[in-house]
Each structure stands twice: as C-alpha cells, then as structure tokens.
Amino acid sequence: MCGFTVVLNRAGLTGRDEQALNACIAGMTYRGPDEQGVWRDDHVALGHVRLSIIGVANGLQPIFSEDQSLVLVCNGEIYNHRELRARFVADGAVFQTASDSEVLIHAYRAYGDDFLAHIDGMFAFVLYDRARGMVICARDHAGKKPLYYAKTADGMVFSSEVKAVRRFLDGGGTLNAEVIRQVQAQRYSLTESDTYVAEIHKVMPGHVARVGRHQDLTLERWYRCRPEPTFEGSYDEAVEQTRSLLFRAVERRLESEVPLALLLSAGIDSSAIACIARALGHPLKVFSAGFSDRSTHDESYEAEQLAGHLGLDFTRVEIDQSDFRNELPTILSYLDEPNGDPSQFAQWYLYKAVRQSGYTVLLSGIGGDEIFFGYPSANRVKTGAGAAQGGRLQRLAATLSASDLGARVELLAYLLRKTIYQRSIRNRPMLTEVSALVEQQGRPALTWSELEDRDLKDPLDRRYSRLLRAYLPNNGYFLADKLGMAHSLEVRCPLADRDLRAFVATLPLSHKFPDDRAKGLLKDALRGVVPDAVLDRRKTGFTPPSTYVLEAVRAYRNRCFTSRLTTLAQVATDYYCADLAAAGHDTP
Q1: Are the CB atoms for 118 and 499 separated by under 8 Å?
Q2: Could you say which of 33, 96, 266, 565 would form a disulfide bridge with 299 (CB–CB 3.0 to 4.6 Å)?
Q3: Rounded to whole angstroms, how far apart are CA atoms 59 and 101?
Q4: At what angle do helices 498-505 and 235-252 cross, to 10 degrees?
Q5: Any idea of the CA torsion for 111, 211, 481, 182, to the nearest 10 degrees?
C-alpha cells in the first residue's frame, strides 16, 4: 500500500510543478513511510511513497521496464502476481524487482491495452508508456483504492489524495455544492466521479483513463459485473463453489512479508476470515473494538469467544468517550474528503492500535453484506414487507422533505457564511459562489434511487446495485483506505474478491437469497467452517455508541463557536468548506 502523485505538463515541467510534487510526496509519507522515489522527464513526473509489504528488499518505485520505456507507480496489491510472473518468465520476461506491482508492466507488454482483464487485485496505478507518449491510469474493479485527477492550465495531475491534487490548482480549487449536499443528506458522497472540489474528479471503479501526447483525456470502463443468472447448477453446487472461492480469496490475501492481523467482530464476515485462515494453517492475531461503557455496541466479548475457540491471540482495543472528543479534527484531516459515518471513530482507534502493535497488514470483513444480501432493511423489497404502506410512506417522506427544506437551506447558508467571513475573508472569489449556492435547494440533486441499475429486472438486485456502486467505494472502502493509511496500515477485504463477486452475480435469485434469508448463501457455504452460534447470531452494525458521537460533535461545535452543528456530517462538511475557503495561502 502506498501513495503517489503524477503531474503532466505539455509545455514542459516548471519549477512550480517540481515544488508542488515534492510537497505532495512530503505530505503523504504516512501512506508510505518506508521509501520515496521520484522520476521525471521534460513533460511527466511521477512521485511515490512506499509501504513495503511484498518485495520488501527491492521494490522501490517508480518501477521501470528493462529498456526503461515503461514507468510505473502503483498503490495496492496484485493478488494473482505469482501466476502472472510465472507465465511471463516462461515467455522470457526479465523482472527487475520482487514487487507484485511489476507484473503490471509485463502484462501491458504481453496483452496491450486489454491487460487489465488479466489483473486481480486492489489497485490504483499510473503507467507511462514513453514510446507512445501515453499515460495510462486505472482503478480496480470495486474501487478499493482511490485515484483522483484534475486538469491544470497546461496539463493534468493524478494522485492518491485530493489534497495533493489541490496543490496544483490556483487557490486550491472551488467548492462543489452538490457533493456537500449529498454528504449532509447521506453522510457520504453518492457521486461516482466528483469530489467536494469542483475541479477534482475520481477515476471511477473499474475504469481506465488514458492521456495522449497532446494531453487529451479519454475514460472507459474496463470491468463490468452485473447480475446475469447464467449459472445452471444446483443450489448445493453453488454453495460448494462459493465455499471454494471464499477459501481462495482469503488465501490470496494472506501473502505478506510483514506482520499481518485480522479485525474481528461478532459478525459472520470477519469470523469467516478468521476460521478460513485457521483452516489454511494461518492462525491470525486478532483485534476487536470494545467500549469503556460496556454498551450494547460492544462485540468484543463474542469476538474473544471465537478467538479462544480457534486458539487465536486476541487483543481488545478499548475506546473511551474522551478519545472521540480529542481526535475528531485529526480524523477529519486524514479523511481527505467530508464523511459523516460514525464508524470512522472506531476504525481510527482500531487501526492505530494495530499499527502500534507492530502490524502492517490487516484483514477486514468489509464487503460481505453487499455481495451476499446482508441488509434486512434492503431485503424487504423482495419479501414485500411494507408494500401496502408504500403510498402513505412516500407521501409522508415527501412531506417531511418539504418541511425540512428550509432548515437545510438555512444550515448550508450558515455554514458557508461562517466559512467565508470568519475564516477566509481574503478569498473574495468565493463570495459569488456562496451567494448562488444559498439560493439553491438544500437537497442533493443525486439521490439513492438514481443510483440503481434500472436495467436489472429484479428489485433486490437493483437495490444492492447502488450499494456496490456508491456505498462501498465512497464509504466502506473509502474509510478503510483513508484511515488505514493514516496509520501506515494496509487493509485487505477478502469478501470483496473479484472472482467471488463475479460468481455470485451469475446466480439466480433463488440461490443468492435462498428462502428469503439474509446471507443465506454465505451461511450455508460456511457451515462446518464457522461455528453455528456465529452463523445464527443476530446481525449488528459496526457503530460506536451514539453518545460518543454526539459528545464529539458537541466538543467540536464549542471549539468553533457555532450552535448549528448537530450531526457528524455537518461537522465534516463544515471542516472541509472552511479548509477549501482558506486555501491558496500555504500551497506553492
């Protein structure tokens, strides 16, 4: 796991480009504390910080092809690198390093522009083909690793972080009001391609960007996984294949030259990883979150029972209410984008404890609910629960939205007035933007329903399509990357495995959602592997006590002298609006 920034300037790299790139590298060393590398020619510069995990001894990036015509920086892991390396070596390829990332260079050489179809991993990378004058930038199938970009006056910038890209923008960029409204309404951004900075965009999951000699940008999808029930086997055969893919997904993510641990809760997903790893002969060190008030949110006791059953070394990370109060501004700064999900607190302290205990890689159960239909509330669309009340509920929702509109506009206007007048009165161009923004509705234009894949026939598939499309890359994987990297920790998610997800997508609904049971397929695949007591336990979410979050919001509100901030999402958007408005005074 690493971080990078790449700058392209068709007029030739300038001193300002060099200064900004150096500042980017210095500013993201937590993403890669082990090594730094920079390479440049007249028009392109690539900078990289490395967290060494595979090929520790000689994996410094940028990585070059043998003839120096290809230059690569990569953030992530390539899980099928051993198979690919063996194939390419048999064909005469010469590798320069033991890094898993180098197989990207040889895959490009072997397969050309279609090489991504042969790659299995979590990644974001930039590959510079000097002979073609082509820069190729790609993001993994699920969006587990971030990749941002922006156009500049004479070129483009790509990076692992928004704040790095902002260094190349005059004034640090301008506010994207729509994204702010989305976070206010949903706790995280729904959009696949935009950020809270209007000039900065995301390469979408499963997409590749290409920039030619004249810096013309093209974007295209290289990976698509849509539910298409082509599987013709029995349910028992589907269960067996699911079990096999689960074991392979965990096994591939156990490879590491540095210490590796597991984040264990009382849930099925992380318990499955613990049990499968144990069955594969890899007893993992496990960490679990506990809360000092012994609240109902505390799953550490059930997690400890499973760890004892498996003979695993267990550590309970106790989180106190005062921890939330003290570190909220620090957490917000590392998020890089506004986010109001309360689970960020527990993740922050868990990742911090794991890293302080000497571990560099952490396995997590993120992604299981979205692939195996694990949300009871979403599953009601299949069972028909609440259908008779649909008309009344929709009318009530419309009424509530209308009644809340004034409050939303007032809140947004207040946040932006405070941002401008209290913190950055020097930034005059923002005033016109704020005036226009306040006149707009406080509700986001993009809503959950618009994210559904309308071409899917089944309502349940449509419901989960939006979770895979927006929730995971913009919230689940987003928090794992940002908060894990804040502590120089790589978070791997076996249940987000590409082949596992693709196989489940081929199953008929009767196999994916057997007898209308949430995670029924996953549970049946794990019978005999995971104790029945775990599989039959009632689902709970990974969320800290609400009193902890409210106290943190209250403390932030008191420090900033504002009485209107009542939710974590409001605090997060306030923080980033203020930061953006104050930009341009400390960047090169």
Answers
A1: no
A2: 266
A3: 8
A4: 170
A5: -130
Q: What fold, for 235-384+467-544?
A: Rossmann fold (3.40.50)
Tokens of 248: 């392979």
Are 499 and 249 within 8 A, CB to CB? Answer: yes
Exposure pattern of 4-25 as b/e (b: 16+ CB <10 Å)?
bbbbbbeeebeeebbebbbbbb
Looking at the chain, the domain(s) classified CATH 3.60.20.10 span 2-221
In this structure, the number of other CB atoms found within 10 A of the CB of residue 384 comes to 11
Which amino acid, one-letter code, is at 213?
R
Terminal-residue alpha carbon distance, the chain: 27
What residues contact residue 524 under an 8 Å CB cut-off, 6+ apart? 239, 514
Mean pLDDT of the chain: 87
Token pair for 347: 């993740």
Confidence at residue 370, expressed as pLDDT on a 0 to 100 scale: 93
For 505, how many CA atoms within 13 A lie in the half-sphere containing its CB? Answer: 18
List of residues 6+ apart from 216 with CB closer than 8 A: none
Q: Which residue has the tokens 């997508």?
A: 505
Q: For residue range 15-64, what is the model confidence (pLDDT) as tens digits?
A: 999 999 999 999 999 999 999 999 999 999 999 999 999 999 998 999 99
CATH ID of 2-221, from 3.40.250.10, 3.60.130.10, 3.60.20.10, 3.80.30.20: 3.60.20.10
Distances (CA, A) of 356 to 345, 353, 362, 412: 17, 5, 13, 39
Burial class for 234, CB neighbours closer than 10 Å (0-12, 13-18, 19+): exposed
Distance CA 399, CA 173 (A): 36
410-440: buried (b, 16+ CB within 10 Å) or exposed (e) per residue? ebbbbbbebbbeeebeebeebeebbeebbee
Residues of the chain above pLDDT 90, percent: 68
Asked if 350 and 321 count as a contact pair (C-beta separation under 8 A), the reply is no
Distances (CA, A) of 391 to 381, 397, 456, 462: 14, 10, 23, 20
Which helix or strand (DSSP H or E) is residue 378 part of?
helix 376-383
Is this prediction's pTM over 0.70? yes
Please report the pLDDT score of residue 475 as a whole number.
96
Q: Return the sign of the alpha-carbon dihedral for residues 544, 547, 550, 552.
A: negative
